[in-house]
Amino acid sequence: MLAGHRTWIFENKPVILSTGTVGGPFEANGKIPNDFDLLHDDMWLKQASFEKAQQMMLEEACQFAVKNSPIEKEQVEFFLSGDLINQITPTSFAAKTMGIPYFGLFNACATSMESLALASFLINGNGANYILSGSASHNAATEKQFRYPTEYGGQKPPTAQWTVTGAGVALLAKNGNGPQITSATIGKVVDMGMTDPFNMGGAMAPAAADTIAAHFKERNVDPSYYDLIITGDLGHVGREVSFDLITKEGLPIEEDKYVDCGLTIYREDQPVLSGASGAACSSVVTYGHFLNRMKKGELNRILVVATGALHSPLSVQQKDPIPCIAHAVSIESRSDRS
Questions:
Q1: Which member of 65, 74, 155, 162 lies 3.0 to 4.6 Å from 171 by CB, making a disulfide possible if both were Cys?
Q2: Hey, what's the torsion of the CAs at 317, 282, 245, 256, to 10 degrees?
Q3: Strand partners of residue 330
Q4: At residue 242, what are phi and psi to the nearest 5 degrees?
């Protein structure tokens, strides 16, 4: 089951039974609106705060994941999820609403694949039959905490990214119909000394390259094994940097097969600068857009590499560098599984 030092091979191949994806008005105007279960026309969702709106989106994504499946909510044994807000309170409050035994996780924007890897590990080892795994973020809530409230109207450099307002959840099962989770490579914290909180893509790129290189070495497959290698939210800057780093490692990855969720969700004419980010970025794009492409038969094997910057407002104010991490999970179409 353990290949090398940091890769799990899932012999029992947990199944993504169903998914739920929710977005906001900005996402509704993006490139993939048809890949969401629900799109809201109001950033507030009629809630008293943006944090409560984020909580509601995660609850809705969980409800859609169960509704789109053949099981009842009471059959779900665990809920693994997290977000970007202090003490992941929106996720914890959503877990209270769902009433499911809960693991609260934080790996910033890498939380989506952290939760999927851990959920797959639990199911593969017969620790559960059904698990909800996901992540959420809200543009205004994240801006308020990590940068400036949106009302401030502060200018940003071209390297900055736009936090996705949304939530993405997958329902994993021991058996059933759906794409299979075949392996996961767990990232290690990589710190290249970058201190600019407006260049998350550049900061996270080395962590993505490190995990991708480890995955191919430890799984002992060629990059051509996958139809797409999908990073989480590196944006234009981070994608280019990470691709250069991977190329220097000698991995023969075709550039058109190296794509980024942060460059997939929004149109080029939307004011997102370097692209999208946020804990929901990789979860909504993967569980919506890319899994829909797998259902259509356009893709058979994908490697999703979610990236996260593990800083806080306090660490930035104290002039600490920005440590980063990336987790990779391989998702493959059904083969001979009954």
A1: 65
A2: -150
A3: 183, 303
A4: -65, -35
